[in-house]
Amino acid sequence: MPNIKKDDLVVVLSGKYAKNRGKVLSVDPKKGQVCVEGVNVVKRATKPSQKFPQGGLIEKTLPIHVSNVMLVCPRCNKPTRPVVQVEKEGTKTKRFRACRRCNERI
Q: Which domains can be identified in the chain, with CATH numbers?
């Protein structure tokens, strides 16, 4: 079970954007990278295409390594390393992430 998923709130721990908070836009588990809203945004000059008919300067969010971000607990509003908890319902087992401090489901 991955620690960080799309739409999670994270805080950036190191680098140019340290202490910034943002929502995860995308996750690439094979490369170990995440795109965070408002972090590592660059401007790229693009030619006109079907996607961008006018072309010009386009702002693009580049990925950062997953080790540079930490999940923020929605209840206590502090960065946390989530713990995986298992809940059994009959024959099925459910796994979910929880905060280490307040045991709130994430």
A: 1-72 (2.30.30.30), 74-106 (no CATH)
pLDDT tens across the length of the chain (106 residues): 578 999 999 999 988 888 899 999 999 999 999 999 999 999 999 999 998 889 899 999 999 999 999 999 999 999 999 999 999 988 899 999 999 999 889 8
Residue with tokens 């995308």: 26
Task: Specify the pTM.
Answer: 0.84
Strand partners, 65: 33
**Residue 96 parent element (H or E):** strand 92-98
- Contact by Cβ (8 Å): 28, 36: no
Token pair for residue 23? Answer: 């929502």
